[in-house]
Amino acid sequence: MARSRFLPDNFTLTLVAVVLTATLLPARDQVAVLFEWITNIAIGLLFFLHGAKLSREAILAGAGHWRLHLLVFVCTFVLFPLLGLALKPLLLPLVGKDLYLGFLYLCALPATVQSAIAFTSLARGNIPAAICSAAASSLLGIFITPLLVALLLNVHGDSGSTVEAIRKISLQLLVPFIAGQIARRWIGEWVGRNRNWLKVVDQGSILLVVYSAFSAAVIGGLWQQVPPAMLGWLVLGCCVLLALALGITALLGRWLGFNQADRITILFCGSKKSLATGVPMAQVLFAGSTIGLLILPLMLFHQIQLMVCAALAQRYARRPEDLDDAQATVKGAR
């Protein structure tokens, strides 16, 4: 029986099932710790496989794509704060001061790393550029986000553990990637012949991140902290913010003449915000404040961006591969 074109793809349906499971059966205590370990291992394996797959020439080309990186940086740290301020007259009366401050805090955060790269990979975007852009966003966000928070929210927190944050990012992302690069001479051909492994790890890491993050949100009282009507307005505000970010990044990528693979990378790296960075940073920046309300917009936006970007990535993945080759040929001819 033919599948209805109105039915979401299997991966999106699986994401919905994971969210429902986390709502009804959230990971608690030792189970949550176990899932955190499994998620970290999956993310490390993802970067190890990408390191083994990508040639040094491709990585250097990705790092040197300065126009793409500059656009992602502007979208992450300039466009989002401006959108947050522009939505203030509509959102503040509906959600209140604390949730709106959390909304602004969301806009000041760096881009997410794991899911941005995973979605770029699924959508057959420029993976080397995505790795360089997302990692740089995370590292720069350690310094830029506190400045934006002080500017937008007039909040000055205690000095954060910058060295510890850099160490964590390096151990989780850069070290496995470098290890994969070192191992490439022995396993590079095998990884190239078994690309389905990358897809499994990409999707698996996203599902694990969704379950772990949503479990923590549910246990933290996600459904009890605010009235249903206020929660509904906040969800709508997050949807509008994401729609604007996706639309503007897509238009800018096309308007500035980037090819399809680069536009996909700009879309997924320039429109996402990091829950993994935002939660621990909030504990430093908002000492003595109601952290739960301040990070609630981030938790909601994180889930919405994963669901929407999963559907977009699957849509891009279904395009014919010869279309990418044709676009690359046209660009080269210019």
From TrEMBL:
One Gene Ontology term, aspect cellular component: plasma membrane
Record-given protein name: Bile acid:sodium symporter
Species the sequence originates in: Pseudomonas cremoricolorata
This protein's UniProt keywords: Membrane, Transmembrane, Transmembrane helix
Keyword Membrane in record: yes
Taxonomic lineage of the native organism: Bacteria, Pseudomonadati, Pseudomonadota, Gammaproteobacteria, Pseudomonadales
Gene3D superfamilies per the UniProt record, alphabetical: 1.20.1530.20
Domain of life of the native organism: Bacteria
Residue spans crossing the bilayer: 37-54, 66-87, 99-119, 131-153, 204-224, 230-253, 274-300
Signal peptide bounds: none
Database matches in Pfam families: SBF_like
KW Signal (keyword) present: no
InterPro entries the UniProt entry points to: Na+/solute_symporter_sf, Put_Na-Bile_cotransptr
